[in-house]
Design brief:
Strand content: under 5%
Helix content: over 70%
Structural class: mainly alpha
Shape: flat
Radius of gyration: 22 Å
Oligomer: single chain
Number of domains: 2
Largest sheet: 2 strands, parallel
Length: 250
């Protein structure tokens, strides 16, 4: 049989909620444990986040304006790092929750799918860290008049970096989202091709909303979204074709 016995009858709605609750709880516990561990290494993570600002011309001048700022920043960094390290657990729990709706052969691909999900997020975060953030910092600081010194609050600087890294990480999950929706028959390549022009416009609108308000940085987000959308169409086509073939052979 293409599906396991557990799928021969529908799981009651309350059972779905109970399973979702436990999987969310496991993900939260993982994040909390990793957050506590990462807190003790927050100085090293902070140093890595300061690196982009130190390597532009002129370097970013940072300052602390409140007594508790550094402690709060370390908590934010620990939470951020805890989430990143827990991504395999989070994606595993997500896919385990969705597996009852998948074919038997698709369930065997769970480790590969989890790895691909984590990789896509990390790739987006790396793209932001190495390409977007240095350019954005250089652009904004260069706008200040010659007689004004740029002194940036440390918490605003860290928040700016973390927000961009998370945004790009989430955006790079578009192919995996396409994979999930296509496997459940919610998304089809025909639908995506039909609304391609709207997706392109939406990519530039999203780039304007989520990135600093300058055209180049907006392009840096919009172009990857468009390319990822095209990749998602290809993924949806493959998944839909395989799923239709598998269902016909049942």
């Amino acid at each position: 049989m293409a599906r396991s016995n557990i799928n021969e009858r529908e799981m009651p709605f309350l059972d779905h909620l109970e399973e979702l609750r436990w999987r969310l709880l496991k993900s939260i516990i993982s994040v909390f444990v990793m957050m506590v561990i990462c807190f003790f290494f927050s100085d090293y993570i902070l140093e890595a986040l300061l690196y982009p600002g130190k390597n532009i011309d002129p370097p970013v001048s940072l300052q602390v304006l409140k007594v508790q700022t550094v402690f709060i920043i370390k908590l934010e960094i620990a939470l951020f790092a805890g989430i990143i390290i827990s991504l395999p657990v989070i994606f595993y729990q997500l896919w385990q929750f969705l597996t009852p709706g998948l074919l038997q052969k698709e369930r065997k691909m769970l480790p590969v799918i989890v790895f691909a999900s984590v990789f896509c997020f990390l790739l987006g975060g790396a793209f932001a860290y190495f390409i977007i953030i240095p350019y954005a910092l250089q652009f904004f600081l260069s706008l200040a008049p010659m007689d004004i010194e740029n002194n940036i609050a440390l918490d605003f600087y860290i928040g700016f970096l973390l927000r961009l890294i998370i945004v790009f990480g989430v955006v790079f999950e578009l192919p995996m989202l396409s994979l999930i929706l296509s496997k459940f028959g919610i998304l089809t390549p025909t639908f995506m091709r039909k609304y391609r022009k709207y997706a392109i416009v939406g990519a530039f609108v999203l780039g304007a909303i989520l990135t600093p308000p300058d055209p180049t940085t907006q392009m840096f987000l919009a172009i990857p979204i468009i390319l990822l959308y095209e990749l998602s169409i290809f993924i949806s086509y493959i998944v839909t074709s395989k799923r239709e073939t598998a269902l016909q052979s049942e």
